[in-house]
């Protein structure tokens, strides 16, 4: 790398005791991340467009689809960082984004997406919990109000980060997002909450999601036992469990790897780019599972893409409001309280 230019202060800090990555590392990081990001973004954009096109039909009774659409948008917002920051930096032979304010502004977009992902995944888990443990059903207006609150919290979390001198930046020497070189990152939020709580918020909410889904799964087992349902019970339970485990594992890894992997495996290109790839995989997995397990969404996606449907969805599922001594299972298409982890 040529040294015939002046680095900004934050870039000088990032460059301390580090070497400029070689072309092979930069291309490996760029193409691996771009590949996953393009696929994940494409799937989520298709889902958003599908739900918007058939909005009334898909949200009139199954209101969780409103949350899922916002979750898809959150993933797209986070993945925009690949196109705005990571790819241009990876393909550049010299450091770019000299302006600290520009770097903070660009990475703030993906940070808002990250917090929104955390909050909306938690809200989906709460929705599934309410379906199985309560007879109450929220109105669409309540969902819209809840969604506005979650977006407000996501934006506020990033603003608080920056306000307390802890913005996220992209380190072009390590090819990763970093909270390093934040010399003013001190103090407490509102005077009593340590700033570390905000930076680790994703991890805390992931464990909360895990707890909620465990309770949901136990409720499914209880309902099946109570009504002595036997028809394909083991297969259905296994599918739900596998779906839940896949989402939790990918979400947990994506929210903790940024802090945990360097401690476990040391600093390397792998540990630097792995968190970003895992979050992109999480976006891809959520979209793929939604299309795979939700028959109604899958049918609408096929219609939206103008593919001829050659099948009739026949999947069955369990729901607390449809279980009875005479009818323990119900069609997912006809039941607004169908259960899928998504």
Question: Which helices and strands, and how do they pair?
Answer:
Elements: H1 9-15, H2 23-53, H3 55-59, H4 64-91, H5 100-133, H6 140-163, E1 169-171, E2 176-178, E3 188-189, E4 193-194, H7 195-199, H8 201-226, H9 233-265, H10 269-293, H11 295-304, E5 316-317, E6 330-331
Antiparallel strand pairs: 1-2, 3-4, 5-6
Question: Which CATH-level-2 architecture?
Answer: Up-down Bundle
Shape: globular
The tally of domains stands at: 1
Distance between the termini: 47 Å
Radius of gyration: 22 Å
Largest sheet: spatial strand order: 1-2
Summed over residues and divided by their number, the pLDDT gives a mean of: 79
Low-confidence stretches: 313-341
The largest sheet is: 2 strands, antiparallel
Using the coordinates above, name the CATH class.
Mainly Alpha
- Output the CATH homologous superfamily: Rhodopsin 7-helix transmembrane proteins
β-sheet strand percentage: under 5%
Helix content: 55-70%
Number of helices: 11
* Oligomeric category: single chain
């Amino acid at each position: 790398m040529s040294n015939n230019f002046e680095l900004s202060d934050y870039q000088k800090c990032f460059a301390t005791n580090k070497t400029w990555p070689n072309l092979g590392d930069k291309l490996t990081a760029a193409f691996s991340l771009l590949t996953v990001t393009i696929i994940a973004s494409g799937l989520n954009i298709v889902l958003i467009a599908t739900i918007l096109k058939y909005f009334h039909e898909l949200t009139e009774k199954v209101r969780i689809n409103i949350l899922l659409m916002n979750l898809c948008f959150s993933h797209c917002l986070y993945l925009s960082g690949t196109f705005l920051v990571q790819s241009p930096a990876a393909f550049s032979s010299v450091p770019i984004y000299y302006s600290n304010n520009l770097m903070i502004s660009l990475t703030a977009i993906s940070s808002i997406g990250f917090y929104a992902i955390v909050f909306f995944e938690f809200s989906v888990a709460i929705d599934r919990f309410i379906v199985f443990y309560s007879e109450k059903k929220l109105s669409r207006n309540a969902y819209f109000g809840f969604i506005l609150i979650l977006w407000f919290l996501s934006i506020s979390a990033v603003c608080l980060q920056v306000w307390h001198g802890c913005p996220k930046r992209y380190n072009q020497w390590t090819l990763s997002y970093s909270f390093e070189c934040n010399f003013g990152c001190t103090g407490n939020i509102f005077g009593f909450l340590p700033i570390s709580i905000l930076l680790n918020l994703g991890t805390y909410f992931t464990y909360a999601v895990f707890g909620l889904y465990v309770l949901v799964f136990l409720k499914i087992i209880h309902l099946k036992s109570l009504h002595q349902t036997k028809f394909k019970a083991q297969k259905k339970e296994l599918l739900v469990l596998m779906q839940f485990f896949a989402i939790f594992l990918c979400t947990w890894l994506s929210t903790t790897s940024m802090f945990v992997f360097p401690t476990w495996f040391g600093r390397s290109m792998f540990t630097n780019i792995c968190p970003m790839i895992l979050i992109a995989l999480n976006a891809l997995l959520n979209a793929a599972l939604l299309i795979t397990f939700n028959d109604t969404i899958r049918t609408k996606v096929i219609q939206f893409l103008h593919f001829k449907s050659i099948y009739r969805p026949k999947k069955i599922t369990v729901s607390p409001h449809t279980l009875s001594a005479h009818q323990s299972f119900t069609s997912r298409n006809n039941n607004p309280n169908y259960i899928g982890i998504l």
